[in-house]
């Protein structure tokens, strides 16, 4: 538009000058080396205008050609990108269907033309991992890592694959390094939770749970359940490493709320029994039975290896006076009488327990009590019942 306006101005100026100097065309001489060119001023003006018009026309043609070439190139590029997207979508479907080979083939075919090659390489890595080809899996992850802003997606994918392959230590290292940059990423925190659970890293799990609740990744109820699981695991770990003294010291350091948790109390008592701290276990059972009557606690009484079983027997007798239908108390008392070689009393309490609920172990104890009294036929009948119960379990 500007160029056309310029040409009109030049033409207008030429027409004006032409009318003013009509009949006075002037004379122009151009000498270059041995060549000379002669023309009037009017002719020169016309040639200049024609030259400008030619230049403008040439510019227009060149621009049109460049634009056409660019449009053609863009058309091919867009076509390739659309095809790449289509293959990637199909590859994702194949990945979800478990067709790893087709997923890898489709997603890598046009990956170079995709507007987000990171996605292509991550899908290819997952497909290779599904086929169990770790070399290809890692190769695709390296290609993905070369893309812009790829760190989080690549490392999370790597950690997931390591967890699925059982490489828990490597997964934990990957996630721990990533956590420094992305401390509140929910996917990362969830993967850490899985890793800690599988590796039995109980203290690390306990430290992580408040953050999981804060980010609303898990509810408080789920956190409480995981806390109990972690504390149970921690009790077992400390007992195996530090013995009963270290176990008791750790227990004393817990909060009152945790010490009142029935599952933790049971776990603590079981670890005490395993570490031959039966006297401490009995004291704890006795204290907790005064607070709440638990079938599990009554069962644990029968597992104690006490030098003097009389206090435990008295405790169970008192419990049965309050509730004669306490099957676990009958069972525990029958087992203690069995150790005291009081066969008839043992038989009586074990039969009462079995009349209220079936138990393979109680059938075995009852058969033993009957054998000791030379009631062989009855003992065989009890054994058959135990076997029938075992087969139906």
Which descriptors would you attach to this protein?
about 400 residues; Serine Threonine Protein Phosphatase 5, Tetratricopeptide repeat
Give the amount of beta strand, in percent.
Answer: under 5%
How many alpha or pi helices?
A: 19
Number of strands: 2
Write down the overall geometry. rod-shaped
How would you name the CATH homologous superfamily of the domain at 309-393?
Tetratricopeptide repeat domain
Low-confidence stretches: 71-76
At the first level of CATH, what is the class of the domain at 309-393? Mainly Alpha
Report strand order across the widest sheet: 1-2
Radius of gyration: 45 Å
CATH architecture of the domain at 309-393: Alpha Horseshoe
The name CATH uses for the topology of the domain at 309-393 is: Serine Threonine Protein Phosphatase 5, Tetratricopeptide repeat
| Overall pLDDT score | 84
- Structural class of the secondary structure composition? mainly alpha
Q: How many angstroms separate the termini?
A: 94 Å
Largest beta-sheet details:
2 strands, antiparallel
Domain HemY N-terminal: 26-132
InterPro entries: Heme_biosyn_assoc_TPR_pro, HemY_N, TPR-like_helical_dom_sf
Function: Involved in a late step of protoheme IX synthesis.
Subcellular location: Cell inner membrane
Description:
β1 (28-32) and β2 (35-39) form a beta hairpin. The radius of gyration is 45 Å and the shape is rod-shaped. The protein contains 19 helices and 2 strands. It has a domain at 309-393: Tetratricopeptide repeat domain (Serine Threonine Protein Phosphatase 5, Tetratricopeptide repeat). The longest helix is centred in the N-terminal third of the chain and has 57 residues, at 41-97. The chain has a two-stranded antiparallel ribbon with strand order 1-2. Helix content is 78%, strand content 3%.
């Amino acid at each position: 538009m500007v160029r056309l306006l310029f040409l009109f101005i030049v033409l207008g100026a030429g027409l004006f000058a032409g009318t003013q100097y009509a009949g006075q065309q002037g004379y122009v001489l151009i000498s270059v080396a041995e060549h000379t060119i002669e023309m009037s001023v009017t002719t020169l003006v016309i040639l200049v205008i024609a030259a400008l018009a030619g230049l403008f026309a040439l510019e227009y043609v060149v621009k049109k050609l460049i634009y056409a070439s660019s449009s053609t190139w863009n058309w091919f590029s867009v076509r390739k990108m659309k095809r790449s997207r289509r293959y990637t979508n199909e590859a994702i479907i194949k990945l979800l269907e478990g067709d790893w080979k087709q997923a890898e083939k489709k997603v890598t075919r046009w990956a170079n033309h995709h507007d987000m090659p990171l996605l292509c390489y991550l899908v290819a890595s997952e497909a290779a991992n599904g086929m169990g080809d770790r070399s290809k899996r890692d190769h695709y992850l390296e290609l993905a890592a070369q893309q812009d802003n790829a760190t989080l997606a690549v490392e999370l994918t790597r950690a997931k694959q390591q967890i699925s392959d059982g490489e828990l230590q490597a997964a934990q290292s990957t996630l721990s390094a990533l956590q420094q940059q992305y401390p509140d990423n929910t996917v990362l925190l969830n993967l850490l939770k899985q890793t800690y659970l599988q590796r039995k890293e109980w203290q690390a799990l306990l430290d992580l749970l408040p953050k999981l609740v804060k980010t609303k990744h898990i509810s408080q109820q789920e956190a409480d359940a995981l806390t109990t699981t972690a504390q149970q695991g921690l009790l077992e770990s400390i007992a195996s490493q530090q013995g009963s003294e270290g176990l008791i010291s750790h227990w004393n350091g817990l909060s009152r709320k945790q010490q009142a948790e029935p599952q933790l109390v049971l776990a603590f008592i079981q670890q005490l029994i395993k570490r031959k701290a039966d006297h401490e276990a009995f004291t704890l059972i006795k204290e907790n039975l005064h607070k709440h009557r638990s079938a599990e606690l009554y069962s644990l009484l029968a597992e104690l290896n006490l030098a003097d079983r009389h206090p435990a027997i008295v405790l169970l007798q008192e419990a049965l006076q309050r509730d004669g239908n306490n099957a676990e108390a009958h069972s525990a008392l029958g087992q203690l009488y069995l150790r005291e070689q009081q066969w008839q009393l043992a038989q009586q309490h074990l039969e009462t327990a079995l009349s209220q609920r079936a138990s393979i172990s109680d059938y075995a104890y009852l058969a033993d009590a009957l054998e000791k009294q030379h009631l062989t036929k009855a003992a065989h009948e009890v054994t058959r019942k135990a076997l029938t119960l075992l087969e139906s379990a």
